[in-house]
C-alpha cells in the first residue's frame, strides 16, 4: 500500500533497459518500493537524447515516442501501488560513455582542463579495469565545445523528452544539474571556462539549466512537477561548486520554474571522492546543505545522503527540509516506509553502507544488494510458505546461519540455531568493531530470530550426538571459514594473532559490550578517567590492549586486514601493512576500497604492496619487496590472510546419514554479501 508521505526513492539506475526500453524487472523493482510505502518514486537516470549523452546502452531513453509505452507501464504500476512517479532526465555530458564508445565527441562547455588522479586504479584488478573500460575499450574521449546550435538542440531535446514523460503519465520530471552531467558541468566554474553568456558569473553558468527548466515548464508545467537535482557542494577540488553558489543557483532555478530542489553532493574525483559524493559514507551527509538552501527558496527541498529514519523524522519535524530521500536503504528494504508507519522499527533491514550496489554501476551492470538478495528479482517476494514444515537445524550463528534461520522460519519451518560460542554473530560480531554499520545488521538479524521464534542454543557444539538429539529433517552448516596461523618461519610465535585467535581472545572472557568498550577506547585512556575506574575495564584493557604494544604489523591487506589496520592506526597504534599483492582491499566494493586505502594512508599506516614475508620474530616482521629485504617493528603481528572455506562438520554429519547444505564462508569465502546470498539460495525454496 503506497501513500502520501515525505519519503522519496531517489534515482538509482538499474542498468537493465537494453536499447533504452524500460524492462519489466525494472517496473517490478520500482513498484515494490511504491508498494513498500515510499511516497514518491524517482527513476534512475533516463537519457533525454538516447543513445546520445547516455552513460550506458541499458539506460532508459526519452528521445523517441517508442519509449512512451514503457513509461506508461511504469506509471500505471506505481499509481496502482498508491505512489507518484518522477522520471529523472539527464544528458551525461562528459560521462556519456556511449558517445565515446561510438567515436562521437562528448558535449561539454569547452575542452576540460581538469583531469583527476587515477592513482586509485592501482587497487583495481585487471578484470575490474577491463569491465570498467569494456564499453570504451581503446577509445579516446574527445570533447566538443557546445555551439549555440548545440545549446538550442539540447533545450529542444529536453522539452521533447519532458513531453514524452508527461504523455507516459508520470507525475514529475527531475532535471539533473549535478554529478558531473552536462548541466552540472556548465554550473561549475572549474569546468566551465566559456566567455559567452553561458560562462563567467554564476548567473551565466546557471543559464543553460534555467533555460531547460523554463522551457520544460512552459511545455508541460501544467502536467508535471519539475524537480531540480543540484549538488549542495562539490568535494575534492578547491574552487568547485560551493554551498553559497548552490544557494544562488537554487534561487535562479526556482525563478525559472522549478517546483522542488533535490540536494545531493558530488565528489570531483570519482576514484578519490566517491564516498563524499554522490554516495556518502557520512550519515545525513548533505542535510545541512539542504537545510541552508531551504532558507533561501520558497519551494520544497528534498535531502538525500544516508538519511536514516531517525534523522529524517527530526529534520522534517523541525522544518529543516521537506522530504527525505532514502536510496540504499530502500534497496536494502523496500518495505521500510510501511514498517515505520506500523511502528515496526526493529524489522527494517538495514543497509550496511558497503557500496556493493553502486560498485556495479562502474561496470554498467545491474546493482545487487549485500543484504537483500531479492533486489532486481522482486517477484520472489513475499517469501513463499514451505510446502511442508520441517524441523531444520542451523549450525553456526554468523550472518549466513542467521539469515538461513530467518528465511526458513519466515517460510514456516521450525528452526533450531546452534552455536558453540556464547553469543550470536560469529565473525560478524567481531567485524562490528571495525565496521559499525555491520552492528545494525547483527541487531536486525537477532531481532528477526526473536520475532520468528527461532530456538537458539548457544554453547552447543555440533556433534553427531547433539544433532541426533535434536532430530532434524535437514541441517544447514554455516560454521564460517577457518583462519590458520601463518605457515612461515615464526608463524607460531605467541605475538602472532589470526582473526580466529583475536576473536577467541575477545570472546573468551569479555562480553560484547566490554570488548567493544576496550577496542573503541584504545588509545584514549587518558581522557577516560571515569571508565578507568571500572575494574572490568581495567582488566580487559590490561589483558588485551596493553600487550598489543605500540607497533603492530598486519600481514594481509585484503578486506579484513585493510580495515583492521585503519582501525588500529586510528587508535594510536603504529601500523605496518604488509600485503603480498598489488591490489589492497579486495573484495571490498571499489569505492569503499579506494576510500579505505586513502584513510589508511591518512592515518599513517605504512603500506607495503607486493611484499613477501620471510619471517616473523618476537620483535619484527622481515619481508622482501622487489628483491629488497625490509623489516618492520612488531610488538604484535596480526595475520589477516589465509582465510579458508572448510566445513568438516558437514562431512561428519553427512557421514552419519543427515541431509546437509553448507552456506556462507564455510562453503566459499565471500564475506557478508556471500553469506547472505548463499543462505538465501539454500533456503528460499527448501
Ligand atoms: C546503485 C545506485 C545507482 C544510482 N544511480 C543514480 C542515478 O542514476 N542518478 C542520480 O542522480 N543518482 C544516482 N544514485 C545516487 C542516489 O540517488 C543517492 O543520491 C545516493 O545513493 C545517496 O543516497 P543514500 O545514501 O540514501 O543511498 C545512485 C545510487 C546508487 C546506490
Ligand atoms: S549493497 Fe550494501 S550499500 Fe548497497 S544497499 Fe545493499 S547493503 Fe546498502
TrEMBL record:
Domain FAD/NAD(P)-binding: start-end pairs: 468-650
InterPro entries named among the record's database cross-references: Aldolase_TIM (IPR013785), FAD/NAD-bd_sf (IPR036188), FAD/NAD-binding_dom (IPR023753), NADH:flavin_oxidoreductase (IPR051793), OxRdtase_FMN_N (IPR001155)
Signal peptide start and end residues: none
Cofactor list: FMN; [4Fe-4S] cluster
Domain NADH:flavin oxidoreductase/NADH oxidase N-terminal stretches: 4-344
UniProt keyword annotations, A-Z: Flavoprotein, FMN, Iron, Iron-sulfur, Metal-binding, Oxidoreductase
Domain of life: Bacteria
Family: In the N-terminal section; belongs to the NADH:flavin oxidoreductase/NADH oxidase family.
Protein name: 2,4-dienoyl-CoA reductase-like NADH-dependent reductase (Old Yellow Enzyme family)
Biological source species: Glutamicibacter mysorens
Organism placement in taxonomy: Bacteria, Bacillati, Actinomycetota, Actinomycetes, Micrococcales
Amino acid at each position: 500500500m503506497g501513500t502520501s508521505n515525505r519519503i522519496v526513492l531517489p534515482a538509482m539506475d538499474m542498468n537493465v533497459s537494453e536499447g533504452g526500453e524500460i524492462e519489466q524487472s525494472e517496473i517490478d523493482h520500482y513498484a515494490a518500493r511504491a508498494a513498500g510505502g515510499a511516497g514518491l518514486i524517482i527513476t534512475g537516470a533516463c537519457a533525454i537524447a538516447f543513445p546520445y549523452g547516455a552513460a550506458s546502452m541499458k539506460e532508459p531513453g526519452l528521445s523517441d515516442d517508442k519509449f512512451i509505452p514503457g513509461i506508461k507501464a511504469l506509471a500505471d504500476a506505481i499509481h496502482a501501488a498508491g505512489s507518484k512517479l518522477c522520471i529523472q532526465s539527464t544528458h551525461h555530458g562528459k560521462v556519456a560513455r556511449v558517445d565515446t564508445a561510438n567515436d562521437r565527441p562528448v558535449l561539454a562547455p569547452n575542452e576540460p582542463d581538469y583531469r583527476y588522479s587515477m592513482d586509485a586504479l592501482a587497487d583495481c584488478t585487471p578484470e575490474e579495469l577491463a569491465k570498467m573500460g569494456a564499453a570504451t575499450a581503446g577509445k579516446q574521449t574527445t570533447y566538443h565545445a557546445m555551439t549555440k546550435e548545440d545549446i538550442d538542440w539540447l533545450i529542444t531535446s529536453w522539452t521533447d523528452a519532458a513531453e514524452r514523460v508527461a504523455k507516459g503519465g508520470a507525475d514529475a520530471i527531475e532535471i539533473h544539474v549535478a554529478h558531473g552531467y552536462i548541466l552540472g558541468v556548465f554550473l561549475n566554474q572549474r569546468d566551465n571556462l566559456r566567455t559567452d553568456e553561458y560562462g563567467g558569473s554564476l548567473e551565466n553558468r546557471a543559464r543553460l539549466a534555467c533555460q531547460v527548466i523554463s522551457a520544460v515548464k512552459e511545455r508541460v508545467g501544467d502536467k508535471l512537477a519539475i524537480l531540480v537535482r543540484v549538488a549542495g557542494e562539490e568535494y575534492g577540488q578547491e574552487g568547485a561548486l560551493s554551498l553559497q553558489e548552490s544557494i544562488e543557483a537554487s534561487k535562479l532555478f526556482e525563478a525559472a520554474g522549478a517546483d522542488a530542489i533535490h540536494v545531493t553532493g558530488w565528489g570531483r574525483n570519482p576514484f578519490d571522492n566517491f564516498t563524499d559524493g554522490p554516495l556518502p559514507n557520512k550519515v545525513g551527509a548533505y542535510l545541512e546543505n539542504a537545510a541552508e538552501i531551504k532558507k533561501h527558496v520558497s519551494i520544497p527541498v528534498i535531502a538525500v545522503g544516508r538519511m536514516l529514519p531517525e534523522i529524517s523524522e527530526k529534520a522534517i519535524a523541525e522544518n529543516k527540509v521537506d522530504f527525505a530521500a532514502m536510496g540504499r536503504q530502500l534497496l536494502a528494504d523496500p518495505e521500510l516506509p510501511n514498517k515505520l508507519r506500523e511502528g515496526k522499527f526493529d524489522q527494517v533491514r538495514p543497509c550496511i553502507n558497503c557500496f556493493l550496489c553502486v560498485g556495479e554501476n562502474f561496470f554498467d551492470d545491474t546493482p545487487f544488494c549485500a543484504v537483500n538478495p531479492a533486489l532486481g528479482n522482486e517477484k520472489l517476494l513475499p517469501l513463499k510458505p514451505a510446502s511442508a514444515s520441517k524441523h531444520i537445524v542451523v549450525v553456526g550463528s554468523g550472518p549466513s546461519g542467521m539469515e538461513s534461520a530467518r528465511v526458513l522460519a519466515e517460510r514456516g519451518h521450525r528452526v533450531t540455531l546452534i552455536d558453540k560460542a556464547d553469543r550470536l554473530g560469529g565473525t560478524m560480531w567481531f567485524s562490528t568493531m571495525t565496521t559499525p554499520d555491520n552492528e545494525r545488521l547483527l541487531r536486525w538479524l537477532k531481532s528477526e530470530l526473536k520475532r520468528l521464534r527461532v530456538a537458539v542454543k548457544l554453547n552447543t557444539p555440533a556433534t553427531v550426538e547433539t544433532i541426533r538429539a535434536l532430530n532434524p529433517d535437514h541441517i544447514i552448516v554455516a560454521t564460517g571459514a577457518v583462519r590458520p596461523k601463518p605457515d612461515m618461519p615464526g608463524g607460531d610465535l605467541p605475538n602472532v594473532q589470526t582473526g580466529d585467535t583475536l576473536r577467541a581472545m575477545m570472546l573468551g572472557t569479555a562480553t560484547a559490550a566490554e570488548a567493544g568498550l576496550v577496542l573503541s577506547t584504545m588509545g584514549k585512556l587518558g581522557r577516560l578517567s571515569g571508565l578507568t575506574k571500572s575494574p572490568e575495564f581495567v582488566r580487559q584493557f590490561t589483558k588485551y590492549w596493553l600487550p598489543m604494544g605500540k607497533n603492530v604489523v598486519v600481514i594481509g591487506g585484503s578486506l579484513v586486514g585493510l580495515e583492521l589496520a585503519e582501525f588500529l592506526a586510528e587508535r594510536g597504534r603504529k601500523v605496518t601493512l604488509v600485503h603480498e599483492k598489488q591490489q589492497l582491499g579486495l573484495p571490498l566494493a571499489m569505492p569503499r576500497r579506494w576510500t579505505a586505502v586513502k584513510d589508511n594512508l591518512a592515518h599513517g599506516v605504512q603500506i607495503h604492496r607486493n611484499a613477501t614475508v620471510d619471517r616473523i620474530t618476537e620483535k619484527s616482521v622481515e619481508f622482501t619487496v622487489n628483491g629488497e629485504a625490509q623489516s618492520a617493528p612488531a610488538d604484535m603481528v596480526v595475520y589477516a590472510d589465509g582465510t579458508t572455506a572448510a566445513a568438516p562438520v558437514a562431512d561428519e554429519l553427512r557421514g552419519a546419514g543427515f541431509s546437509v547444505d553448507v552456506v556462507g564462508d564455510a562453503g566459499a569465502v565471500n564475506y557478508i554479501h556471500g553469506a547472505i546470498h548463499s543462505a538465501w539460495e539454500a533456503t528460499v525454496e527448501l
